[in-house]
């Protein structure tokens, strides 16, 4: 009797514990899924709101919609599926998978999955879908203004990486997705997410932390058998139940706090930070003010690459500690991933904020001692104020982000506060980015070729490929109008790859000469760069020994580690490396020994002043002399006059490039130059010019650059 009552009590206590743990775990899973879904929604909305994408969708221009929406959603954000569904018929009118536009037939095949998903998605605006591509988290994008008849669904693949990340953040194991009809294994819990394939709902399931009932069933027979030791065992059970309840409570607390905190630093994660910010904004009274700071560590990638991830992680934790201390009770600090930190500070009056903002910024700028070494880290900081700049968390974040962008553009360690004109600029930049992405895709770029000539003979040794953009509205654009935009987005690597390929293809029709291609320094960070270059050479059949890659001087000296290795690998297959714009950065010839450079291009600004400023001549002469002694070829850029050329000859520069010889010209003209050079009568003297410009041409049969 007593035994029965005791066991009954135990079962009830432990089952209660289990239910609570399970409920917490479920909440945490939903919270994470919702956070993920919100990120998908934000990205998709941002793309759809840009330009008139929604309007074009309504008028059925799906190729346009694809360029602006489906393709970038996959390429830039990594969400590989996007659908627009007609609300009345439930049929997809537009679908994109892996960045490819689906045709009618393929869309018809996707229709049943979508219909089932829609039925099951319900209030949460998200659910799991499954088809032959696997499982995905389907998210309904908030109603499209101006297109009430259309529903937008974006899908993020629930793959191994997705599940791993959730497991880590939830501190659970064995997370997987299965049909709900399948019996769940012992000790597992799950959340049912949506209807699909017939009536079987999908379940996201994991091994639960609760263990009470299981333990009891294991031990129950023993209790019965040892009824003589009844009291002792009961007591032992009571103690154990208490302990297990405590352990469970702890793990619960950990699981739910981890769902809202950044794993590494313990700062708020995105979801928690935004919700705290929203709460604080909602609670603001008359004179209250709030500052939202976006901070991005300078050169963190380089620190990580050169000193390793352990040091990188330590650095992030130290910055997090400082940030948290500097913000104090007045707000909250968070990390949005990588080296992106955020913080908000509230104060009873706007005037009180400035000093606090300066303290937070200062905390990040002080040197950090990691692993026995002192690292000088800086951060770019963008800040926006409420209510002055925005009243909602979303708008405020957008504006702080815009300010951060400005700060980064101004260089390392910069601080920028939001100003309304920045928003206009940002919109303009996004527009240029989008148009440029299309231009690369649709071959609206053109290459011109500017000859590099031998200083002595004035014969053409090679050409530099210079890119132009034939813009449908604005006509032909020079690189200065779009290269900086490309460099600040991921477009630059696509642009430079396009140029490389186009130049190598064209280069085969320019026999015997070298071809120089500009490569933005940002590309050096890409560990696959050398493979990419080699692949293009292979595909186009262009001889590596005829290719020269021009990199700006400043790039080389930030190119420690991986960047340097890339250059060495390229040089080892015979590609030449030229240092562009020499003299404008902080490279000195002493450093050049340690980098794999075969040529230096002396910047135009020095050549311009030859014969005008005494210093210019001295510098050019010095560079040329030292370069020669190191066995490096010297090219002078921007040679416009005979007088400049005379100086260069006297100093012993080997190559020159500039309007004196020819501006950049189309490929046909470049080819004609070479043809004319080949048939020209050999001539002597100082008046030898490029064939098309003057009477005579030189015929000294010098090898292309690199042999002197
Ligand atoms: P850069 O590599 O220094 O290229 C030389 C620039 O000087 C070219 O301008 C050329 O037209 C101009 N130039 C040549 N001779 C003379 C001269 O005698 N006098 C004067 N005043 N200018 C001369 P462009 O084509 O506007 O290119 C500007 C810059 O854009 C280039 O400077 C290069 O840094 C960048 N760029 C051009 N094409 C590409 C590309 O395909 N990829 C990348 N990443 N950057 C490129
Ligand atoms: Ca160049
Ligand atoms: Ca240059």
Give a written overview of the molecule:
- The structure is a single chain.
- This protein has three domains: 23-206; 270-418, Alpha-Beta Plaits; 428-684, EAL domain (TIM Barrel).
- The longest helix is centred in the N-terminal third of the chain and has 48 residues, at 2-49.
- 47% of the residues lie in helices and 21% in strands.
- The protein is built from 23 helices and 25 strands.
- The protein is α/β, with parallel strands linked by helices and 708 residues long.
- The protein is globular and about 105 Å long.
- The structure holds ligand C2E and calcium ion (2 copies).
- Residues 580-581, 601, 637 line the site of one calcium ion (CA).
- Ligand C2E binds at residues 450, 466-467, 478-480, 483, 496, 499, 518-520, 550, 580-581, 604, 637-640, 657-659, 664.
Within CATH, the superfamily of the largest domain carries the name: EAL domain
Shape: globular
Supply the CATH architecture of the largest domain.
Answer: Alpha-Beta Barrel
Radius of gyration: 33 Å
- In order across it, which strands form the biggest sheet? 17-18-20-21-22-23-24-25
CATH-defined topology of the largest domain: TIM Barrel
Main beta-sheet annotation: 8 strands, mixed, barrel
Strand content: 15-25%
């Amino acid at each position: 009797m007593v035994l029965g009552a005791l066991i009954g009590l135990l079962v009830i206590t432990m089952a209660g514990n289990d239910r609570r743990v399970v409920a917490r775990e479920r909440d945490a899973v939903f919270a994470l899924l919702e956070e993920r879904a919100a990120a998908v929604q934000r990205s998709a909305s941002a793309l759809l709101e840009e330009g008139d994408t929604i309007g074009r969708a309504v008028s059925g221009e799906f190729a346009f919609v694809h360029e602006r929406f489906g393709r970038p959603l996959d390429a830039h954000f990594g969400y590989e599926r996007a659908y627009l569904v007609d609300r009345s018929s439930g049929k997809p009118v537009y679908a994109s998978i892996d960045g490819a536009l689906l045709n009618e037939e393929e869309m018809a095949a996707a229709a049943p999955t979508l219909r089932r998903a829609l039925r099951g998605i319900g209030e949460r605006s998200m659910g799991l879908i499954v088809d032959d591509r696997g499982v995905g988290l389907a998210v309904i994008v908030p109603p499209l203004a101006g297109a009430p008849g259309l529903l937008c669904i974006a899908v993020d693949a629930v793959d191994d990486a997705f599940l791993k990340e959730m497991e880590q953040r939830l501190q659970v194991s064995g997370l997987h997705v299965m049909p709900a009809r399948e019996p769940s294994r012992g000790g597992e819990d799950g959340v049912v997410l949506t209807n699909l394939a017939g009536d079987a709902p999908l379940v996201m399931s994991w091994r639960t932390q609760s263990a009470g009932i299981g333990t009891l069933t294991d031990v129950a027979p023993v209790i019965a058998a040892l009824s003589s030791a009844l009291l002792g065992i009961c007591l032992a059970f009571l103690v154990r139940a208490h302990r297990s309840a405590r352990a469970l409570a702890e793990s619960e607390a950990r699981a739910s706090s981890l769902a809202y905190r950044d794993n590494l630093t313990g700062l708020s994660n995105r979801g928690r930070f935004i919700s705290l910010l929203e709460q604080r904004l909602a609670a603001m009274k008359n004179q209250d003010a709030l500052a939202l700071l976006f901070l991005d560590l300078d050169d963190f990638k380089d620190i990580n690459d050169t000193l390793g991830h352990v040091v990188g992680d330590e650095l992030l934790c130290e910055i997090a500690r400082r940030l948290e201390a500097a913000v104090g009770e007045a707000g909250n600090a968070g990390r949005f991933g990588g080296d992106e930190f955020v913080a908000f500070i509230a104060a009873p009056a706007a005037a009180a904020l400035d000093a606090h903002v300066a303290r937070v910024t200062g905390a990040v700028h002080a040197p950090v001692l990691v692993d026995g070494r002192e690292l000088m880290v800086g951060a770019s900081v963008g800040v926006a104020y409420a209510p002055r700049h925005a009243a909602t968390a979303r708008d405020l974040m957008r504006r702080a982000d815009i300010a951060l962008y400005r700060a980064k553009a101004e260089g390392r360690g910069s601080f920028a506060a939001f100003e309304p004109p920045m928003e206009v600029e940002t919109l303009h930049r996004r527009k240029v980015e989008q148009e440029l992405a299309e231009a690369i895709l649709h071959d609206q770029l053109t290459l011109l070729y500017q000859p590099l000539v031998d200083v002595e003979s004035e014969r053409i040794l090679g050409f530099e490929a210079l890119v132009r953009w034939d813009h449908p509205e604005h006509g032909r654009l020079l690189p200065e109008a779009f290269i900086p935009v490309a460099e600040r987005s991921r477009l630059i690597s696509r642009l430079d790859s396009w140029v490389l390929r186009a130049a190598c293809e064209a280069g085969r029709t320019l026999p015997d000469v070298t071809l120089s291609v500009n490569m933005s320094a940002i590309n050096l960070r890409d560990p696959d760069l050398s493979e990419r270059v080699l692949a293009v050479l292979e595909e186009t059949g262009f001889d590596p020994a005829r290719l020269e890659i021009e990199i700006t001087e400043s790039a080389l000296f930030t190119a420690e580690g991986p960047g340097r290795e890339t250059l060495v690998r390229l040089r080892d297959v015979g590609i030449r490396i030229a240092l562009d714009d020499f003299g404008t950065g902080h490279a000195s010839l002493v450093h050049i020994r340690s980098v794999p450079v075969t040529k230096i291009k002396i910047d135009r600004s020095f050549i311009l002043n030859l014969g005008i400023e005494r210093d210019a001549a001295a510098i050019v002469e010095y560079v040329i002399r030292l370069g020669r002694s190191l066995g490096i070829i010297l090219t002078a850029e921007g040679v416009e006059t005979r007088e400049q050329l005379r100086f260069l000859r006297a100093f012993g520069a080997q190559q020159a490039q500039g309007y004196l010889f020819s501006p950049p010209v189309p490929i046909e003209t470049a080819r004609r130059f070479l043809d004319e050079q080949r048939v020209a009568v050999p001539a002597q003297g100082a008046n030898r010019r490029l064939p098309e410009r003057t009477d005579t041409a030189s015929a000294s049969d010098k090898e292309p650059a690199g042999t002197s």
